[in-house]
Structures are given as structure tokens and as C-alpha cells.
Amino acid sequence: MLRADNLGVPHGFLDAAQSDAHALQLAVGNLPTVFVKQVHSAEAIAVDAPFPKDEWPEVDAMATATPGLALAIVTADCAPILLADEGAGVIGAAHAGWRGAQGGIVAAVVEQMVSLGAQAGRIAAAIGPTIAQASYEVGTDMRTHFDAADHDLFRETGPGKWHFDLESYVARQLAAAGVNSVRPLGLDTYTEAPRFHSYRRATHRAEPTTGRQISLIALPE
User: Fold this and answer.
1) Per UniProt, which keywords does this protein have (predicted)?
2) Which of 36, 93, 144, 192 is such that its CA lies 20 to 30 A from the CA of 76?
3) Which strand (E) or helix (H) includes residue 28?
4) Which structural domains are found in the chain, ordered by start?
5) What are 111-153's pLDDT values in tens digits?
6) DSSP 130
7) Chain centroid to CA 189: how far?
């Protein structure tokens, strides 16, 4: 299990085997844990208790100020983001694929944390295992969705072919939202098999694409 050195609260990025075993206690003990139905949106909500599984809201980020509660995000190439303002007692978690990131999911989760008493400049964030630029080939059609100021995150590799740096894009958006402490873990889900699940790798190999990593963060009671 991976941890960042800047969050200051219980958290962890589980690997594939730990996630498959649903070993949440490795990161946050036996705390009640909030899951949501992730849909590649830019929607973030504040939570104070887990939802029944058949009532998971369709959002991609959440924040809480409730002690003794954990937040969980699942990913398999997209970027898992864990956030904390330890002093204010506010945490957040977000799922950022390129659509959600481009749509504003990073700013949305920071805004929810601030609404609960956090200060953007005190928030620390960590970006867990995600697909790296070298593994993330995209087309010109995707690049056109991004502002020219972010075109430096696309490396041209052939006619109409680019490699996109999702991790750096998320880090850039966190900085733009006022987050000063950002730790990208720099781990590529695509190349590190079997350590991590990768939707793109599984698709390329005609393997099942259902595997997901779980990332968790909690407020101590």
C-alpha cells in the first residue's frame, strides 16, 4: 500500500491485490467508508455518512468534516486524488479522468472542502497511481478539448497522435485551485502489471476490464 508524506491523516492507495481483497482496513482501519457511483463528471458533494449501495450518488468527488469517516475512490488509469486540511479537520477524495479533470472536478472538490471550513492554501493533495504520459496515446480530437495553455502537456508522436500527461494536468489544476502542497506519486498503472489494474492495458490485451484500485482517506475520531 502506498502513502504520501504530506497528508497528515490516515490514507492509502491500495494496489491491485489489496483492492481485489477489499482490504480497506490496511489504510483506514474499520471505519465506515463512503463510496459513490463515479461517472466521469465534474460533480462533488459533501458527505457525513455512507450511502446504501443502491443509492450511491452519481458524482466523482466528495468531502467531509465528519470524524471517524473514510472516503473511497476507485480507479484503473484515471487519477485518484486524496486531499486534507489537517488543521481544519476536512478531507476530500476525487476521481479524475481526462473528462472530469477538464470539466472541473479538481476545483469542485476543493470548493466543497472550503465550504466545510478548509482553506485552499492549507490543503495538501496526493495523486495516486495513474496512466503515465508515455502510455497514454490520444488523438487530435481529444487535444482540441483543452485550452492552448495546456497543449504543452501533449507530446506529438505521429500524424494525429499525441501522448497526454494526465498526472501533470491534475497537479496543475490543484495548483490553480490554490493547493500549495501536491505530491504526484509518479506510478504508471499501464506498465506496472500485475501491481496495478489498467483499463487500457486490459483492453489492449483483450482481458477483463473490471479491475479497479481503491484509494482511501479518513478523519481520525
Assistant:
1) Hydrolase, Metal-binding, Transferase, Zinc
2) 144
3) helix 25-28
4) 11-131+182-218 (3.60.140.10)
5) 999 999 999 999 999 999 999 999 999 999 999 999 999 999 9
6) B
7) 13
Q: Is 150 exposed, middle or buried (0-12, 13-18, 19+ CB in 10 A)?
A: middle
- Identify the burial level of 89 via C-beta atoms within 10 angstroms of its C-beta, where 0-12 means exposed, 13-18 middle and 19 or more buried: middle
Hey, what's the cell of 29? 482501519
Q: How far is CA 8 from CA 85, 125, 146, 181, 218, in A?
A: 9, 10, 33, 12, 10
Bridge partners of residue 61, in order along the sequence: 44, 94
Neighbours of 210 (CB within 10 A): 9
Let me know if 35 is exposed, middle or buried by CB neighbors in 10 A (0-12, 13-18, 19+): middle
**Residue listed under C-alpha cell 497522435:** 161
Strands 70-75 and 33-34: parallel
CA atoms within 13 A on the CB side of 202: 14
The three cell numbers locating residue 96: 479524475
Cβ pair 1, 13 in contact under 8 A: yes
pTM, two decimals, is: 0.97
Distance CA 24, CA 19 (A): 8
d(CA 216, CA 35): 10
